[in-house]
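Table S2 (continued). Query chain:
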Amino acid sequence: MHLPVPQWHTCVHWQHKEHFLLAEDTYEDWVMFIIEEGRFTFRIGLHEGVGEPGDIIICPPHHRFFRETLSPLSFHFVVFGLDGLNVQTGMELPHIPTGHIKLVKGRQRLDDNLVKLAQAADLHTLPTASYREHLLMDIWYLIVNEHHMEGEAIGKGAVSPQMEKAAEMLGKQALTGGDIRAVAQALGLTAVQLTRRFQAAFRQTPIRYVTSIRLQTACKLLAGTDRTLDDIAQACGYENGFYLSRMFKKQTNMRPSDYRKTHRL
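Corresponding output:
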């Protein structure tokens, strides 16, 4: 799939930042944290973890970005746009690199680019700005290249037919409240075996996969309809609005009613 080319808006080099001014923030554009030194925890929707040197954290527009430093942080804060994409909170775009990016094959080239980017950070002449954009574009291509290779690996045999079938079955039953144990049984596996194999294939557990589908659907219905919370819960595979509200708050740190007020279409 063709990926849009970024338009670079801002690039700021922060050094030895002991804490973030805001524990959470929401941006109008895409943002990218490229970490040089230090560590911090983060959560963006269903993406969470610890960012370390060499890691890249990408947050789409209108997503709540929770973060807390664990040690003094040096990083490049990059704001950019992607033409033609209107991203709403909670909606995943699997073809766009999002969340925690850890380069493997491109790590040395990333480190080289970061050294050059840091050297150019305090200069504001037009040639330097153009050079900085060149470096950022090279970093973006590194990210996209590894993201694309991961996707190809999944599509070309890295995932067994059994796990492909598991993902298909889980996706179909996510909104009807089906039982993961029933899927495991249909595939001749125990629930533990299914969880381990699914995790290895898709880097997330079956429960997290199903929860992601349910909450994406809930976000869409909250923003685009007047349906009651109980009605939306039933449409998303949950027993009632109370349980949906609890899961929604746990994963997004926002009540469904607040999400609806903020993101109403």
